[in-house]
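subagent[fold] <- orchestrator: predict structure for attached chain, return tokens only, no commentary.
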Amino acid sequence: MRVLLSLRAAAALIALTVIAALAAPAAAAPPRAPASFERGAITRRPYVVMIDNHPNAYPQTGLNEASVVFEALAEAGITRFMAVYVPGASPDVPSIGPVRSARLYFVRWAMGMRGMYIHAGGAPDALKRAREAQELIDVDALVRSGGAYFTRIRTRKAPHNLYTSTARLDQAAVRFGNAEINDPEQGFLIKAEAPPEQRPAGQELGYYFIYRQDSVGWTYDPAGNIYLRLRRGKPAVDGATGQQLRASNVIVIEVQERPIPGDTKGRIQQDVVGSGPGFLFQDGVAQDITWRKESEAAPLRFYLGDGSEAAMNPGQVWIAAIPKLSNLTVK
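subagent[fold] -> orchestrator:
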């Protein structure tokens, strides 16, 4: 009996020790640089995930680990994100979301990346194109074939509570097959970062989509050669780590948008096939660029004033598609 009590006491002590260790504040680990979306290094279909940006969805999780993030209008002035992860290169991301619905222009960007397109329902034209596109594997959380790779959390209300992970998306890739790609043109050119002595002391940029009060900002940090994201003037953070979102390259492009006639939900269309002006922010410097996407299936490319293709710094590329470049300010 004494031996049994001793074992129980030891087990209780171990349990208390574990609980105390879990409860103790851990030293904040430095943020990891996301894997680069590097041309010639992508051999598996990227995971291209639609992520909610409704106020009830903030803070999101997993954006900090994405190789590329697209930011564009959905409707009613609210934006949506599309986060891109590179299997085999991106770190394991245990929580990505909240996952939201598809829009046709996001589908077209995903087609150019040969992605596995991850979403929860969507506009009718987007759903049709995602199902039919030869360039994509369509994984919809709201249909039986895709539902197993998502979960809803209890701490948020639907529809802002649907999440996935890279582990679940790995399972989806096995389930749907055709995950390998052989496209040497996929990805961005990557260059060396500017050395510290060539970096300016600071740079700030801000933009809005429809409403000035719903602004986005980025502050350049020369020590890390990164841009730190602001949301309505305050640090935008990851919901899992609490760390401020950061990007090595910030691209702001002008993309024309217009309402879809007769759409009862006020959805819009955006002209993402074609070309237009923009700015590339990297190494604390702003450069005029032109974006080009020659067809639905073509990749999105960026070109400098001399006609050469722009190369990215290693790490995350954040692409914001705003209706007018006059909505952008740079200091």
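orchestrator: received. Logging for downstream: The chain has two domains: 47-176, 196-330. Residues 38 and 284 are 21 Å apart (CA to CA).
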